[in-house]
Amino acid sequence: MRISLSEWTRSGSPWVWLNAGAVAISVIMVIGLLGLIAVRGLGHFWPADVVRATYSHAGQQSVLIGELVESEMVPASQLRDSGIEVPEGIDHMQRDLFKVGNRDVTGADFVWAIDAHVTARSYPETLFVAEREEWGNLYGYLRSVKQQGELVAQYNGYEPSADSTALWNELQRRIERARDLHDQIQNIQKGEIGAINYEIERLRLKQRSLELQNVTDPAPYADIEARRAELNAEYEVLQSQLLELNTAMNRDSFTAEVANGSIVEIQVAKVVRAFLPNAMGPLDKIGHYAGKIWEFVSDDPREANTEGGIFPAIYGTVLMVLLMSVMVTPFGVVAAVYLREYAKQGFLTRVIRIAVNNLAGVPSIVYGVFGLGFFVYFLGGHIDDLFFPEAKPSPTFGTGGLMWASLTLALLTVPVVIVATEEGLSRIPRAVREGSLALGATKAETLWKVVLPMASPAIMTGVILAIARAAGEVAPLMLVGVVKLAPSLPLDMNYPYLHLDQKFMHLGFHIYDVGFQSPNVEAARPLVYATALLLVVVIALLNFSAIAIRNHLREKYKALEM
Amino acid sequence: MSQEATANVPDLDFDTSSARRHRKVRAIKDRIATLGIGIGGISVIIAILLIFFYLLYEVLPLFRSAEVEPWQQNGTAVAPYELPGGGKTLYLAMEEQAEIGLRLTDNASLVFFDTRSGDVVSEQTLDLPEGVGIRSVASISDARRLFALGLSDGTALVLRHDYKASYPEGKRVLTPEIAYPLGQAPIAVGDRPLDLLAANGDGDSWRLVGGSGGVLTQTDVELTENFLTGEVETEFDSQLLPNQSVKPTKLLLMPGKRWLLIAAQGGKLVVEDLQASGGASTTQVLTATTGEIRQFELLLGGSSLMLADDKGLVSQWFLVRNDQGSWDLTRIREFEDGGEALTGFAIEHRRKGFATVDSEGTLRLFNTTADRNVLTEKVVDGGVDHIAYAPRSNALLLEKDGDLQFWAVHNEHPEISWSALWSKVWYEGYEEPEYIWQSSAANNDFEPKYSLTPLAFGTLKAAFYAMLLATPLAICGAIYTAYFMAPGLRRKVKPMIELMEALPTVILGFLAGLWLAPFMELNLAGIFVTLIMLPLSILTFAFIWAQMPNRIRFLLPDGWDVTLLVPVAILATMFSFAIAGPIENLLFGGDMRFWISNELGISYDQRNAMVVGIAMGFAVIPTIFSITEDAIFAVPKSLSYGSLALGATPWQTLVRVVMPTASPGIFSAVMIGMGRAVGETMIVLMATGNTPIMDVNIFEGMRTLAANIAVEMPESEVGSTHFRILFLAAFVLFMFTFVVNTLAESIRQHLRQKYGSL
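Predict the joint structure of the above. Result:
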């Protein structure tokens, strides 16, 4: 159908189309954002091929070994300004970011290079990557394996051969052994020695508390001293065990040739894993990928949080959110029930309702300020004075911690639960309540047996929305107890098992901290994407389950609705 | 119901004792439940409202005025006591805890006394040559407990009073001492009696200026430690200053030893540059007052001159760099006083404040930065002879008619006033009054700058740019979704956009800071081209689509047009980025970012307001979208049907009928979105440089109230002024969002009532 421009404009359909465009743009933005996080987050764990190339820069040629991380187009004028020669007539040049690792050798583990200057690219199968406990990745050719300084095996070529395979297997065996010993050492350090240290600290506090109570009887002091001596003896035994294990672990070393041709010698014990990315088949890569993802969700962070896993952060987030929901559910429901079922409806309840509703819109940082001032300094300070005078001057509850963080978030989310529950309660027809009362049930019985079950979908929705909000909230937590690296988990095997006063790690804060406070942002970035992805997935799951539970329960009680 | 069934009903007795008991238990349970829920509900609501009151409780002390009272010792007020040590007071001071006072008397004796009882703790007489008396006392720095004495033989002595704490038998005992930083031997300054003296310096390098009449001599003292013997060697260098045309009455030497300030008869004020090339020279001669200069002191830090005339008018002066790059002593502000001559004047040791006592005996406490008179109270009858501030500003010693009075001062937060928080303030060292937020610095005598204006400005700037992106996108999107979109599609699109609301802002902030900001810096032209190309391409496509034959157009069900636009928008974006390079070359010399900073002279931060606007706009879109969509969808269908039946086009119906009906709802959506943008912390924290500047430039960053709290709260000292100001910032945020949300909510309620009947 032909239509003239003026007619078309007059009909108003350009405006309709522009409105449709707004929807399209919003949808593209949402999907694009999620896609960006997913691609970057998941891509990080895939073992990328390692390239060996010749890089000519400022009239010099050097060997470049590393992974291609990303490429971008840069205006030629910008390059010319920074002193790079660009031929006339070229407007833009591609610039690549390579992860070259070997921070201990070269100082920087990332290199920007003009794509055109990187030539003679090849992917030798003997190139290997070693993930280390410190100094990031090592890229190079494996040259030899040594045991206590004695040469065990070596290979000097660049092509794969039987010798190189033998050498590689030798290294893998030794890495496995060293990892085993490393795990044993970790177990002793974190488990047994941790428990001993914890008990010694408790003894110190006990003694201090006796002193504060002016107990003069020497018996309890002697008991403490005896127990301390016992613990110290145990500690000595463990310490000597550790020493043995450490010597055993540090037995092996290997040498590798790195990009600039020099040979470096590295302790096998410092290596987390080593692999030959260019020689890996798709199946190997998938296996490696799964292993890395498992490491990511189950391991402790390494290297100032830029490597390794985020298990403590997941653990802290989940525990804090659980504690918060335990607090927020009963209080939120009781308040809603009171407002809707018991309080006299009038001006005051309407004001309170609006106030509660609006508290959901108050910035979260305000709750953080309140939590810090009221919970931490005021309540915590008084609790310390009353119950933990022996630990002073170091604060117990007078500083941010798990308890205050969950309480602050409970306060932040309680309006969500109240509003949702009230909504649910208001939907229940009067007739249902009246029916129950007419049959002789008391008000409490009606509430417990009839009203609350019918309102349960709404309550569940409220709680899950509260959890979803709490899991993603960071600003208030920064003030009331989140830290970048917690030495121990807030729930462990030491009495009283759940340490409410302890500081903890949190996924959201981890993103902020690693992304913005980390000394090596470039290296940390992929990990931040992965953490962000995990957080998005968790929160999306929570939201979807809120919807699903609501629908399910709504179906269940549909018969009751008239 | 049959006869048989009735006959078979068992004989039920509801009044057995067990049934009665059961009913009683149930009734008790019911009452307990009522009580429990009542208490629980009310306490939860109170707990929530507690936030408001707690914030207020932390903020209020900021605005309380100061109080003074006679010092309370063991429950009784300290009564005035006779001057310990006798003689006439030349100098009065106190130690850190205000437990011990120091009095220098005219017979060269230093009397340390208990400030609460007047008992003499120890007394030392200065070892002065025979027949030599003290002619003048110059305070060098109250905070460092340094002062200098000018003697009648033209020599001077620099003294410091120190206090050593020891704990014999677990009790704290303070032992006062006198130290001589420049040696115990008097330093020859000139050959005339030192009726006037000023001194300053630190470490190894000192300068003293003194003399009488118009003749002043400057003496530099250098201390060098001999490495071998460890002995301190002193070098002197004296020179006569140019004769003064005025009659000096008081001298002050500013830290840095460059500027000598001279108060002279007739209210004259002379500024002398001692380090000018070609020797000391007079740079300014001012008439500070029509009367006589009575009080002449340096404020904490030594960069401000406090001057009071015989009518009691106090003014603050400091050196301001002028257009020629030289320094002018400038009158900054005046402090209203009662019009009586001042008899006592004391400077605070840790803050930019001072105390005055006039001839009526009225004590006034001031703060210079806040330009605030914290207290006016008559404490004695008639003027005082001397006044001294305790280092912690928690006590004052007043000498009157041979008696000493010891007063406690409660003055926690004098730095805060309405003007200090919201108006331009002329801070020390600045060329003009400015809005500055700078809460801490490395040195102690720093002037804290607590102007909330740049933070509030930053907050509004961030919110403005966010709303600039979010409002059109969200409202237009909501209009389409609610009014034109097919119901099946709507059920999918709405939850998807609402899911954005649950997206943690820390993720948005991280993407904005680490992905979008560098991306934008590199592709600035591409982004601007996209902004223009997107609507153009959508309209072009729509027009082409309208030209299509009906059989193609009708393939797409009504309300699914938006699905066509998704590929169009993606292609348009890709096309924009592709042509951005050539456009950049053509118009901006190859690099738009460079062009902006070099050609336009607009400074460009990588993390700027545009990044924040996009990221925070993203966070606000779902809020506005969701509420607007609800508001439009809730408009009764009968209204639009009526309009359409009368021949209006869908667009006309929307604009003339649906939108006016839904407009209060849309307004409230924008308000709630605004509330969210104002309080958002993480995005701003991560996507800007957090510099508290006031500039509307879209390519520069800002610091918002919320981000400021997050940055500074963990380091703030509990109970300090800074701590309470951060609480005030939180309170401002709280009140702002609360008021905005309440407004929005009541509009919505009103709307609901109005159209509920339709």
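The radius of gyration of chain B is 38 Å.
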